[in-house]
Amino acid sequence: MNEAFMIIGFLIAAYAIVGNDSIQTLGTFLYSNSHRPWWVLWLFSSTVMVSVILFGWFNYNQDPSYSRLNKVYDKSVSLTEVLESIELAREVVRAEPEQSEILAELDLLEAQIKETKSVFTKDPRALDASLDELIGELGKLEALSQSPLVPNPQRVTVRAVVTKTQALLERIEERRDVSNFISWK
Known about the structure:
The chain contains eight helices and no strands. It has helices at residues 2-19, 22-32, 38-59, 71-76, 80-94, 100-122, 127-145, 152-175. Helix 5 (80-94) runs antiparallel to helix 6, helix 6 (100-122) packs antiparallel against helix 7 and helix 7 (127-145) runs antiparallel to helix 8.
């Protein structure tokens, strides 16, 4: 039982070091090991710091913060409304089997929306290309829905998808200002 408490204490201390108290911990480490040569202490500390930064750099798309800072932007652009409207449109479109093109385009639009959101939060440099693809898919869906062969209920639900996707595009454009985007790049 004591070993379990020791492990839990160690994990909590390790989290405190990495998550919040690294400066205070480094000072305590240096003071408690003051009998060792200064260059050994700094070499050890520097090795740990460089290792952690390089790990983040190589494993998180050149982001030593491990992409934690971008979570603010991940939450600022919600896909819930758009995805719900796409699902509703799918249900309505399935009622008319001859509208399989619209159903396929809804699938493509959903995939592109998710891709654009991922690019927005992880690689803002590639956002323009992703937005262009999303706008292209949106245009295709809108063009398909304007066909005289598409019944009015389907046209209305597809129009709702288009409107909500355009609102999503506007939110992304508002939040893409580089001065507000939290990034190490």
